[in-house]
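CORE FACILITY INTAKE
Project code: CF-77B
Contact: R.S. (postdoc)
Sample description: multi-component assembly, two entities in total
Requested service: structural model of the whole complex
Turnaround: standard
Below are the sequence entries exactly as provided by the requester. Do not edit them.
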Amino acid sequence: MLGVSKAFPGVRALDCVDFRVQAGEVHALMGENGAGKSTLIKIMTGAVRRDEGEIRIDGRPVEINSPGEARALGVGTVYQEVNLIPTMSVTRNLTLGRQPRRFGLISWRTARSLARERLKRLRIDIDVERPLGSFSLAVQQLVAIARALEDDTRVLVLDEPTASLDADEAELLFQIVRDLKGRGIAIVFITHFLDQVYKIADRISVLRNGRLVGEGATAELPRLKLISLMLGRELEETEERLEALPHGAKGEPILLAEGLGRRRVMAPFDLTLRPGEVVGLAGLLGSGRTEVAKLIFGAIRPDSGRIEVGGARIASHSPGQSLRHGMAFCPEDRKAEGIFAELSVRENIVLGLQTKRGWLSRLSYSEQERLAQEMIEALGIATPDADKPVGQLSGGNQQKVVLARSLVSGPSILILDEPTRGIDVGAHAEIVTLIRKLCAEGLALLVASSELDELIAVSDRIAVLRDRRMIGEIGSGDVTRETIIRTIAGARS
Amino acid sequence: MSERYLPLLATIAVFSALFITGGLLYNNFLSTLVLGDILADNAFVIIAAIGTTFVILSGGIDLSIGSMIGFVGVVMANLDPLGWHPLASGAAMLAFGLGFGALQGLIIDFCEIQPFIVTLAGLFLLRGSCFMINLDSVPIQHPFVAAFAATSIPLPGGGFLASSAIVMLVALAIAIVIAHFTRFGANIYAIGGDRVSAALMGVPMRRTTVAIYALGGFYSALGGVIYALYTSSGYPLAGTGNELTAIASVVLGGTVLTGGVGMVAGTLFGGMILGLIATLINFNGSLNGAWIMISGGVLLFLFIVMQRSLLSSFRLRGVA
């Protein structure tokens, strides 16, 4: 791709970007949120049309105007969120648009064996007749890759393929990627995980603010250089911000959960939370991190145990009650549970507060505007104005809006579920800093995260979960990577 | 047996249970005579409902069905005195239904307007056109109509499969082939399952959307032709409310209203259940006709609850 540009209303998403991928290499495409990665691959795969520039495959200029054309040219794509049809069977998903036909009608028998064969190439063995939605996200991801891979696929684009996978699943994916690389397929790999880039990528291209700011072999691009390219500022600055640890405020517990649980969702657990304290929830994928967060917030109704906030028991536990008691919750899946994409930044921010106040005491427009502006500045949300629909912001900024909504109601307890998922390094550091600042101001925080380092960086105490059971708590001063891993592994005899 | 067939089996079970209940309550109920009557009486709605199944499977809705049925009958009745053979006028109306549906589909896709509004406009447009043509019931006197009504296949046990029922079963067979054995059919399920993903997977959205509504229009026009032949007349109020009966048949047949899940064959049983309830209440004689709608409503509600739990059972697993 040469000199490719694309402008969206109000934003120049890509500015004369050159991007070259060679056969048989894994090429990592890096950049912060809003750097233009998504736009670049959407142009490459025909989902968006470019304004300027040229795309060549094997030196030959080509036109890619639709996903179908991209596929015909040998460009296969797996998008960030699994983009298959959950209600259809695996076979139907794999063969959609190219079902084998006999006498003009689809032969499902051939289709099934074709589907099995495709999966076999990736060493997956599943029941191809079951609906795709009944499998885990990891399997769905692999099915998506199986679909993107044709016999004549030249370029495979993987957009954040590991975002929802745990370490073992990611490793399986990497084996497959190496396998494909060996077959001479060019792989474009987009991720936020630096470790994975150095593990698998041969070359790296870095985008920043819609421009290509660096390109080179992985071996010649050390971590520090890469991060500073992505951030456009020196890393020491980020590291420095990560160093300040304003922990310590203690006192009477503000939140007390006793034997809280729900059958088949989460075994009963106890948890206390004090003002100015950060408690982390650690555990592997599916261990119950999200469930604990949701039980405490009342988004999942507990069927046992009791919960007290500030000494007062919450009788009928529901999100509305929790809000009224000064709790706030930022869900894990911001696309589905966090934001209202069509509503503006201002409306999204004010929503929680309005709910808390009740519909009778309406916030005036100027008041809303003031609060939104305050939050946009405080959290550094990159948006031209407060009236832009949230759906048009980048992922990191959407996450900040969710955070802003929780903060604007002035909560005393904040529950964050995967606060940094799908967010780049710079925004990540900003959010971690923010978490620190909040708890220095006396807020009690409960943070669930799959990233151990992040938890260690922010938490005073860590509750360790395994198989939907709370199996231990690691107190302050003892919070290290090793103790957590040992706790997770220790009970696993 | 995959869980895909569960709603269909539930529908068939409900139908069988109702039919057997009728047999226990009334002599001569459990016969091919009653079955043949139900098929013949409801053929036109079921035909229209088959077309609606495609629309609903794609996540859309078509409200213009009832008006289409009325409009087709009125036009056919008015072409009759001009010397048109009912088959000729019927074919013309099928072409009209196809074109009208395609136009609705084009507007829905091109202007990105909700199908509800577009087909609601279609409902008003066609019903209004009926009244423009004439206000009274007009008979169709061509001898073919009588011949059509007389044609039937005898069933074992003294019943008859009327010509309208035959047309309906043929239409159903064709629809099953389209839905389950063509790429177009697979694309409908994909669009209904997840629009955005379907587009990214290379499903031709505009072509498919236009074809879905064209098919819907064709089937409701066919329903109209059968209704006109069955009643041998055209009446401007004919088919009023039938769009909702058709949608109810589709949902009772196990198709999920949000699209992506369901089977065409289910719609036959869905329509038959509604017909069976009406017949049961007619057999009773002392019950108010209102019970037809009430029991239909209760069943519909139960089915939607069942679908809901079925869908969430595998959606949840995907998230965990």
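Facility notes:
- Chain A touches chain B at residues 47, 66-68, 71, 77, 79, 83-89, 92, 95-97, 99, 101, 104-106, 108, 129-137, 140, 147, 286 (CB under 8 Å).
- Chain A is about 35% helix and 25% strand.
Invoice: internal transfer
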